[in-house]
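Quick note —
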Amino acid sequence: MQEPKMRVLIISPQHWGTMRITKHHYAVELTKLGHEVYFLDPLDPNWKIGKTSFLPTPTEYTNLKLLSHTILAPYNLKFHAKGFFDLFMKRHIQKMEKAIGQFDLVWSFDLTGAIPLKYFKAKRKIFFAADWPPNLDAVKAAESADLVVSVAQEILDQYPENYKKLLVSHGVAECFIEAGKIPFSKTDEQFRIGMSGNFLRPDIDRTVLLDIIASFPDILFECFGAYEPKNSNLGGANDKETIAFIEALKTAPNVQLHGMIAPEKLALELRRMDAFLICYDVKKDQSKGTNYHKVSEYLVYGRPIVSNYVSAYDFEGSGVLLVSKSENNSKLFDLISSLDEKNEPRSRITAYKEVLKEVNPHYFHLSDLAWLQAQYQLMMN
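Predicted structure written out below.
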C-alpha cells in the first residue's frame, strides 16, 4: 500500500538560495517523492511593529514553496525574555497554521529553537542536529520531537538518553551521484585542488589555508561558494578579519573564486578537480570535526581528499587523508605534498558506497528517503 503524501514544513536556520546544504537537499528530495513541502526561512530580525505575515512563494521545484514570515514581537526578545518570546511564537505558529494549513510533518534543522516544535499540531516531528549543540537551548529545542536525527554519534550523545535517536550518513543529492559516474579526461597538466562551501565562515583555519596556497604556487586552488556577504544565503561573518581573508584569496595568483553556483552545476565542476581540501579549525568548527556534508559529496569523484581531523572518517581506507586527532592543521602541508598526481581513482561509486557503509551502516542517498521514512515508522511503533 502506497504511503499517503504529506504536507511537510522544513524549519531552516539558513535561507533558501543558490547554495544548498543538508536541509535544502532534503526539501527537494521530499518534493520528488510527491510531498507538498514548505521551506520556512529564518525569522526576519528587522522587526516592524504590528506586522505579522506569511508569504509562500513558488520555487523552481514543483510542490516546493518558500515560506517567508515576520513576527509581531522583536526578535531580540528571545535573548532577553525567552518566556515572553515563546508566548509570541506560540501565537505566531497558530497564525501560520491558520494561514497555510496544518502540516503532517514538521522537520526542524534549527538548533536555536526559535520556532518551537512543541507548538505545532503536526502528528510527526523530527529534529535534525547536523551540528554540535552550542548550548542547552539547542538540546531543549528537540524535547518535543518524536525523533532526533544526526550524522554523528558524538552529537546524538549530547541529547538525553530517553530521546528516540537515529544515526544516518549525510545524504547526497542525486546530481552528485550521477556526476561521479561520468568519466573525465584532463586536457592540460594543471593540478587542481577544489574547495566548496561558505568562505565567510569564521571557523575556517584562515592562516593555515592562506599559507598552504602560498606554499604551493604550482597548484591551482578553485573555490566554489559564497565570498560576498550580500549574496550569501548561508550567512557568514563580515568583520575586518573576514574581509582581509577574502581579499587575500582574491589577490592570490593561484586561486580562482567561482562564487555561488547551483548544485547541479557544482557537481559537474567538481569532476575537473585532482584533489579536494578541507581546512577548518576544529576548535571553532560548528560540528567539532565530527562529520562534514562535503566529504560525502567529494567521495563520489574518487579523488584524494585532504582534510583537518574528521572523526567519522578516522579509519583505514576512508579515502580521506586526515590530520590526526592529536595534530594541528600544519600537517596538511605534508599531506598535500604526498599527493600523487598520477594515481588513478578507484572505482568511484563502489568505493564511495564502501566508505559510507563504514562511516555508518545506515547509509543512504537522499533519493532513498523512503528508507528514512520507514525507519521513522519502525521507531514510532
